[in-house]
Amino acid sequence: MLSLKSVSKRYKTGDLALKEVTLEIPEGQVMALIGPSGAGKSTLIRCINRLVDPTEGVITLDGEVISSLSARGLRKARRRMGMIFQEYALVERLTVMENVLSGRLGYVGFWRSWFRKYPAADVQEAFRLLDRVGLKHMADKRADELSGGQRQRVGIARALIQDPALLLVDEPTASLDPKTSRQIMRLICELCEERHLSAIINIHDVLLAQMFAKRVVGLQLGEIVYDGPPDGLGPDVLTQIYGEEDWEATISKVEDEDENDEEAPEPVASA
Ligand SMILES: Nc1ncnc2c1ncn2[C@@H]1O[C@H](COP(=O)(O)OP(=O)(O)OP(=O)(O)O)[C@@H](O)[C@H]1O
Ligand SMILES: [Mg+2]
Prior knowledge:
The chain is an alpha/beta fold. About 35% of the residues lie in helices and about 20% in strands. It folds into 2 domains: about 1-80 and about 165-180 and about 195-265, P-loop containing nucleotide triphosphate hydrolases (Rossmann fold, 3-Layer(aba) Sandwich); about 90-165, no CATH class. It is built from 10 helices and 10 strands. This is Phosphonate ABC transporter ATP-binding protein.
């Protein structure tokens, strides 16, 4: 389980990006983190993997206090956190296989990784993962020859080969078309279920969050203003998170439509 207790982050510039954020994410839960630009979504993820140090508060992952680890302890702890990014962060001139294997860098010794000599078991696992994410025949392609959706699949395989307990996902679909976005979100959520992984997925698309996450947390100016099921994101809640707007159009209407069907007037027979 991941736990954040009263986590605050003030950057050197004075920006208070997180204000006493308290959250618990049980094993296997996929949580979507929504909120306007600047709300603190990326900061929250970076505090968990300690790319930035929280100013106050305690973060634990499976009982281990992440927020006060030494550099050595942190290297080990980061193996348990798989990262997936909007811009994929692949090494363009390397092959798909080499990019996936680079997820093992936290385990493989420096010289082995320098000569890119990975254990056979890692290579087998990489093939298995490539198959699972639908890129079985692309192992030898260079990363710069792939489409955005394919790149993100490589990013997912690279995160999973770490054998993480937690996935930290920062806007995985922001550069993808609507159908590919759904496929990528579906893949991430299926893999979390298969492997019993917890995940935090930062996402701007409210509908995608509602479709795929069982829990949605809304951040606004560094504070949690909503924490609940996806169908609780009504116009009032969205106004609280994002500000005044006509939110009706963005919310899934499936349930309303059913109700409307019942109330629909009888068709008038033509004379
Ligand atoms: N390295 C930094 N130094 C100073 N201030 C920062 C830094 N990174 C972020 N901030 C500030 O912290 C606040 C939260 O930023 P953050 O990037 O976490 O928001 P976000 O919710 O991820 O936004 P977006 O949706 O645009 O990615 C903002 O006010 C931002 O300006
Ligand atoms: Mg961000």
